[in-house]
Amino acid sequence: MIPYRFAALALATVLSLGFAATRAGAAAPTAPAELPAADQARIAIDQDPAVVQALRSLEASGHSAAMLEAGPHEWTAGATAQRRRIDGAGNSNEWSVQIERPIRIAGKAGLDRRLGQSTLDLARAQLAAARSEAARNLLDAWIDWLAARQAREVMDDQVRAADENLRTVTLRQKAGDASRLELNVAQGDVAQARQLAVVAATADAKALAALKIRYPSLAAEPKTLPEPAPLAWSEAQWRDRVLEVHPLLTAATQGVRKAELAADRARADRTPDPTVGVFTSSEASRTERVVGISLSIPLGGTYREQASLEALKQVEVARAALERQRRELELAVSGQVQEALGSLERWRLAEQSAAALRETSRLTQKAYAAGEADVQALLLVRRQALEATSSAQAARAEALRAQYRLQIDAGLLWPANAP
């Protein structure tokens, strides 16, 4: 077994190198052996319905950006036909045709292009946030399955131990060293152990079925959960890293940028766009031909003014949302770090307790076989050892889960490819 301090140093080195590599744009570190490989995890994550929805939203945002760049104004064609009656001169058939189009002024075209780009950037950030949440869901489903599988293995071992104990009691009862009562107690212990094994097997099957239904492309290869190692960084380092790369904060930042551009666009829209056109007409029985240009300018009023003021308030809303998201992330990271530290210590204590009780159970089993202990004492010690082992296994899973969640939020585990 690798020494505890050496394992901690190794993990710290790997994460530090991964941090530096991510900053430099290099390849991300390999996923731990007990978790799905990075390429398989990315495929499973990209098939998550929430990620697919965010990807379609990004595609729609591309069209929205193209619309903004093209602008809302289009050419308008018109035509009129009329008959003029002139007293004493007969009738005159007359017609006119025209074509006109509004023109964006006051830098509105440039603002629309930047607004479209900000819409794309926001959609990309939202896609990254959806992938991050899907990665957390994948992690939870995977850890739940591995924990359920290990719990089933523990109960299978318990059934084998109960069967072995029943054989020992049966031999002693035949030899006259054990009573019928002890044999009944041993038989009841076997039945109870098998019942608990069925419960554990059912939980394992349910966790595996849930994993396959949610991630059909993922190969569910059984893995063994390793011993958790200490956190590689301090709370401040984790917080700085998460705040730097977390997509939710990036999305909130892009939301502020989009709101600011929308406010600039609303302010520019207070200067109305003129409509310019050309026309030609035939009048007076084709004896007069008219060609000209037209210009019309809307007169801005209360609506445009209020729209500009509303857009400015939306900027304040977006900035408040950014600050709220920043604080929530800081609180979440702090809680996750404390949870990781606490779960690690709980696992260490639970493992120590389980190891001591397993040894006690082994010694009591030997004592019973030698006739130095009764069956009730043996079953009590075995039950305590089982509970301690199950508690240690659950604590191990939770400690690893807390650490891997931190790595996902920090962009160090299953980093997403750019869309």
List key phrases describing it.
69% helix, 10% strand, disordered N terminus, 4 strands, 4-stranded antiparallel sheet, Outer membrane efflux proteins (OEP), 419 residues, alpha+beta
Can you walk through the features of this model?
With 419 residues, the chain is α+β, with helices and mostly antiparallel strands. The protein has one domain: Outer membrane efflux proteins (OEP) (Up-down Bundle). Helices cover 69% and strands 10% of the residues. The chain has nine helices and four strands. The protein has helices at 4-24, 38-46, 49-70, 108-174, 180-214, 235-245, 247-268, 302-369, 375-409, and strands spanning 76-86, 90-102, 275-283, 288-296. A four-stranded antiparallel beta sheet has the order 1-2-3-4, with no helix packed on it. Helix 4 (108-174) runs antiparallel to helix 9 and helix 7 (247-268) runs antiparallel to helix 8. The longest helix has 68 residues, at 302-369. It is elongated and about 145 Å long. The two termini are 42 Å apart. 32% of the residues are buried. Mean pLDDT is 87; it is low at 1-28.
Q: Give the overall form.
A: elongated
The ordered string of helix (H) and strand (E) elements is HHHEEHHHHEEHH
Number of structural domains: 1
- Biggest sheet, open or closed, and with what strands and sense? 4 strands, antiparallel
Under CATH, the homologous superfamily reads: Outer membrane efflux proteins (OEP)
Compute the number of helices.
Answer: 9
* Average pLDDT figure: 87
In the CATH hierarchy, the third-tier topology is known as: Outer membrane efflux proteins (OEP)
